[in-house]
Amino acid sequence: MLAPSGFSPQEYLFLERESPVRHEYRDGSVYAMAGNSDNHSRLSINLLTAMNLHLRDGNCQFFSGDVKVSYADAFFYYPDAFVTCDDRDKVDRYVKRYPKLIAEVLSPSTETFDKGEKFADYQQLESLEEYVLISQDTMRVECRRRVRNENGEGWETEIYEKGDRILFSSVELEVAIEELYRGMSWRS
């Protein structure tokens, strides 16, 4: 749901701290966050569990959908999950600016935006190495990875499906896709 536009980043951050409803911000427009399904929640919990256990003793921090990611105050998004290993992200408790991995669980209402405009926004984050899109309707995970070489920079995509092991290369974690989808309630 679109709220009025014309907000400055500072106005958005002030209002967001006082609001009982989470909102995302993009170029002056503020959008209320919709509620999530049981499968969305289950996938987020399973990913959080795997990542948290893997990262618990290292320098990296893993966050759920309650902490914002921003680039140059152009956008403030609440990814379903993300990892940052940058000490500069220890300064602000509410906004992180140097994520290494971002994961979004796809919803029918957000899938096009998550795969298109949101991904374009996230690509501005120099620290971002991996963008993960998790389907909640079928066992399918899309990992988009930044590739830097002598020819420049781009993104490669790898798709994981039933029977595969997902490699989250940016954090050196491998998980069976069935573990990520454990406890899901599939529609018949």
TrEMBL record:
Instruction: Give the source's domain of life in one word.
Output: Bacteria
Which Pfam families does the protein's record reference? Uma2 (PF05685)
InterPro entries in the record: Nuclease_put_TT1808 (IPR012296), Restrct_endonuc-II-like (IPR011335), Uma2 (IPR008538)
Q: Name one GO molecular function term.
A: endonuclease activity
Q: Which species is this record about?
A: Zarconia navalis LEGE 11467
Q: Please give the name of this protein.
A: Uma2 family endonuclease
Q: Which PANTHER family does the UniProt record give?
A: GLR1098 PROTEIN, RESTRICTION ENDONUCLEASE DOMAIN-CONTAINING PROTEIN-RELATED
Keyword line: Endonuclease, Hydrolase, Nuclease
